[in-house]
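Weekly sync, protein design subgroup
Attendees: M.S., D.O., the rotation student, P.L. (late)

Item 1: inverse folding check
M.S. brought a backbone from last month's batch and wanted to see whether the design step gives back something sensible before we order anything. D.O. pointed out we never logged the input encoding, so this time it goes straight into the notes. C-alpha cells as presented (637 positions):
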C-alpha cells in the first residue's frame, strides 16, 4: 500500500516540522510496502515493535507526534540496483543538501569498480551510505554511547552532541558510513532520513536518484520491477560482519576481475566456489621497495605515544611488584631503596602522559570523561577503565610506600609518631593496592588489544597485535626497570652488571615475542584473501626498506640483549647494552607507526577524486586542499 500523507500531523506541526510536505509529492517518493515477511535472512524479526512496550515519538525537531506509517516499527532497508546506476551523484547531492553538509563530508558516496578489455570494458557504480545493520558494530564500539538502534524503522542514529570525536566507530564500520569531521571534531552519519519516513516519504537520496537505482522499504521486500535482493555485490564487504540492511540487484555479467578507480591497491576476483567476489592485491605501485619515512607520521601519532607509554608503565610496574613477590634479589634491592617511590611515580607519569596524548587525539578533548559511558560493550571504554584503575591503585600504592620510607618518618613531627605504628598496615595496603594495580593494568592491556581486533581491518585483526603489545610491555618495561635500577645501584654502591643482565634477558625475550608475532602475521597475510594482504603488500613495497630495516634491527637487538649477561660487566659491554636498548626503542616506535599507517580497511571503492587517498594527498602536496570546496581538509584528527 502507498502511505498517504496524514493531514492532522501536517496541520499540527510547528514551523520546524518533521519534514515540509508538498501537495504534489510524486508517486516514486512515497513509501510502498503492502506486506512484509516475519523474519529477515539473518533470522531476526522484521517487526521491531515487540522490542518496546509501546510506540514512541522520535522527537524530530521538537515535534512530539508519532509517524503514521503502518510499517513504522519494522526494519527498513535500502535497495541498490547496480544495473541502473549511471554515476550521476544525484544521491550524494540530495543527501548533502538535506543534511547541510560541508564539502569534506558525505553520508552517501558513489564509487566505481571496473574490468574487462576494449571493447568489452565494464564499469559498475556503487552508491553506499549507512546500512543500519542488525548488529551495528559502531554502536557496540562507541565509548560514549552516541549510537542508538531505534525500533522505529530499525534506524541506527548517531548523536554528534554526545560524540567526543575519537573516531573508533569509523574504524569498526566496514562501509565507511560514520564520517569523522576533523574540523568540527565529531562524527556524523546517515540517519535514514527518519523525518521523511515519518511523513510517508522515502529518503532524500532515493527520491533524487535519476536512474531508479536506489529504492527503500521494509527489508526483504523486493521493490517493483526488481528480481533480486542479494546481500553481496562486487566490492561490498562481508555481510556477516554486521548483518547490514541493504539489498542488491546486479544482473549484468561482470569480468572475473574488477579493479578500483581510486588509489587503493585492491581488486576483486570472482570466487566461483563461494559465489561472490573476494578482495585481492592489485599491485598498482609495483614491487619497488621504498623508505617512505615521511609517511610514517599520521593523525594517529598520539595513539602511537599512548600505547607505547602505557605499555612501558604496565611492564615496569608488573616487574617491580611481581619480581619482589617472587623473591628476585635484584628487584628486591630496588624495592628497598629510596628510588622505589620514584619508580612508581615514573609508572604514573608514563600513563598520565599516554592518557594526555590519547585525550589530545580526541576531536573534543574536554569531553574525555564520556569515554566510560559504554562499559557494557565498548573495548575502548573498558581499556580506559582498566588504565584509570591502574592509575588509581598505583597512586594508592605510592602513598603507602611513601609512608614506609625512612626519610619520610624522619621528617614527621614528634606529635605524629603514630605513623610508626601503621607500618604493618601500610605494608598490607601497599601489597594489596599493588596487586590490584597489576590486575587493572592487565585488564587495560587486554582491552587495548581487543580495541584492534576489528573485522573491518583484517591487518589488525590478528594475534600479532597481542604479540606486539605484550612484547613491548616486556622490553620497554625492562628498559625502564634498568634505568631506575641503575640509579638505585649507584646510590647503594652495588654493581650494575647483574641488573643489566636481567633486564637484557627480559628485553630480548620481549623482542623475541614481537618477532614471533611478525613472522606469523606475515605468513597469514601472504596467504590471505582480504585487505590484510593488501596492507602487507604496501608494507613490503611502499615501506619496504623501513620494514626490513625494522625487522633486521629487531633480530639484532633481540639476539644481543639475550646475551647481555655475558658482556654487561665491562664498560664496553654497558655501552653495547645501551646501543641495543636504543635500537629496541627505535623498533618500538617505527613498528607502532607502521601499525597505524599500513592498515587498509574494508571500505567501499572510491571515485577518481572523492574518497580517494591518492587524490587527497595530491591535493595537500600542491596546495589544492586550501580550497574548501575541494573537500580535502588538513591532515589532522
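Designed sequence read out in the meeting:
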Amino acid at each position: 500500500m502507498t502511505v498517504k500523507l496524514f493531514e492532522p500531523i501536517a496541520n499540527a506541526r510547528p514551523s520546524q516540522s518533521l519534514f515540509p510536505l508538498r501537495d504534489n509529492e510524486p508517486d516514486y517518493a512515497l513509501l510502498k510496502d503492502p506486506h512484509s515477511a516475519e523474519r529477515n535472512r539473518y533470522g531476526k524479526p522484521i517487526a521491531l515493535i515487540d522490542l518496546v512496550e509501546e510506540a514512541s515519538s522520535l522527537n524530530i525537531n521538537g515535534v512530539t507526534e508519532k509517524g503514521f506509517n503502518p510499517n513504522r516499527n519494522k526494519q527498513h532497508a535500502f535497495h541498490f540496483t547496480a544495473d541502473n546506476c549511471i554515476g550521476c551523484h544525484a544521491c550524494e547531492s540530495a543527501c548533502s543538501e538535506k543534511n547541510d553538509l560541508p564539502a569534506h563530508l558525505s553520508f552517501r558516496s558513489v564509487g566505481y569498480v571496473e574490468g574487462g578489455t576494449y571493447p568489452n570494458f565494464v564499469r559498475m557504480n556503487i552508491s553506499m551510505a549507512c546500512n543500519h545493520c542488525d548488529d551495528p558494530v559502531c554502536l557496540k564500539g562507541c565509548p560514549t554511547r552516541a549510537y542508538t538502534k531505534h525500533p522505529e524503522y530499525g534506524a541506527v542514529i548517531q548523536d554528534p552532541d554526545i560524540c567526543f570525536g575519537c573516531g573508533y566507530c569509523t574504524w569498526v564500520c566496514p562501509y565507511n558510513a560514520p564520517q569523522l569531521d576533523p574540523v568540527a571534531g565529531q562524527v556524523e552519519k546517515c540517519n535514514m532520513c527518519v523525518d521523511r519516513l515519518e511523513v510517508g516519504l522515502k529518503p532524500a537520496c532515493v527520491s533524487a536518484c535519476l536512474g531508479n537505482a536506489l529504492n527503500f522499504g521494509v527489508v526483504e521486500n523486493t521493490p517493483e520491477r526488481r528480481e533480486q535482493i542479494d546481500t553481496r555485490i562486487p566490492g561490498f564487504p562481508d555481510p556477516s560482519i554486521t548483518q547490514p540492511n541493504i539489498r542488491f540487484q546486479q544482473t549484468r555479467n561482470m569480468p572475473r576481475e574488477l579493479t578500483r578507480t581510486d588509489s587503493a591497491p585492491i581488486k576483486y576476483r570472482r570466487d566461483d566456489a563461494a559465489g561472490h567476489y573476494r578482495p585481492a592485491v592489485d599491485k598498482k605501485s609495483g614491487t619497488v621497495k621504498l623508505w617512505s619515512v615521511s609517511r610514517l607520521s599520521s593523525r594517529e601519532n598520539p595513539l602511537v605515544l599512548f600505547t607505547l607509554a602505557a605499555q612501558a608503565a604496565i611492564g615496569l610496574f608488573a616487574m617491580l611488584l611481581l619480581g619482589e613477590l617472587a623473591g628476585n634479589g635484584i628487584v628486591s634491592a630496588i624495592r628497598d631503596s629510596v628510588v622505589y617511590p620514584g619508580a612508581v611515580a615514573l609508572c604514573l607519569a608514563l600513563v598520565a602522559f599516554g592518557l594526555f596524548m590519547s585525550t589530545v587525539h580526541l576531536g573534543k578533548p574536554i569531553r574525555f570523561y564520556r569515554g566510560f559511558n559504554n562499559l557494557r560493550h565498548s573495548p575502548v571504554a573498558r581499556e580506559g577503565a582498566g588504565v584509570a584503575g591502574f592509575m588509581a591503585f598505583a597512586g594508592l600504592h605510592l602513598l603507602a610506600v611513601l609512608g614506609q620510607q625512612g626519610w619520610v618518618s624522619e621528617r614527621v613531627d614528634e606529635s605524629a609518631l603514630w605513623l610508626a605504628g601503621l607500618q604493618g598496615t601500610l605494608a598490607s595496603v601497599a601489597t594489596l593496592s599493588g596487586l590490584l594495580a597489576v590486575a587493572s593494568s592487565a585488564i587495560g592491556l587486554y582491552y587495548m588489544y581487543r580495541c584492534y581486533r576489528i573485522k573491518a581491518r583484517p591487518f589488525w585483526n590478528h594475534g600479532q597485535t597481542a604479540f606486539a603489545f605484550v612484547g613491548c610491555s616486556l622490553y620497554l618495561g625492562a628498559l625502564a626497570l634498568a634505568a631506575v635500577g641503575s640509579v638505585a645501584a649507584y646510590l647503594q654502591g652495588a654493581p650494575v652488571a647483574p641488573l643489566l643482565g636481567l633486564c637484557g634477558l627480559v628485553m630480548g625475550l620481549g623482542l623475541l615475542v614481537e618477532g614471533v608475532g611478525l613472522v606469523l602475521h606475515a605468513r597469514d597475510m601472504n596467504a590471505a584473501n582480504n585487505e590484510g594482504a593488501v596492507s602487507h603488500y604496501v608494507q613490503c613495497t611502499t615501506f619496504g626498506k623501513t620494514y626490513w630495516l625494522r625487522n633486521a634491527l629487531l633480530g639484532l637487538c633481540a639476539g644481543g640483549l639475550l646475551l647481555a649477561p655475558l658482556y654487561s660487566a665491562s664498560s664496553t659491554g654497558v655501552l653495547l647494552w645501551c646501543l641495543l636498548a636504543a635500537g629496541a626503542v627505535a623498533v618500538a616506535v617505527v613498528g607502532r607507526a607502521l601499525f597505524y599507517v599500513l592498515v587498509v580497511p574494508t571500505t567501499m571503492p572510491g571515485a577518481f577524486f572523492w574518497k580517494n587517498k591518492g587524490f587527497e594527498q595530491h591535493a595537500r602536496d600542491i596546495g589544492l586542499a586550501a580550497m574548501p570546496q575541494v573537500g580535502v581538509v588538513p591532515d589532522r584528527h
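Discussion: Residues 12-16 have pLDDT under 50 and may be disordered. The two ends are 47 Å apart (CA to CA).
Action: P.L. to compare against the previous round before Friday.
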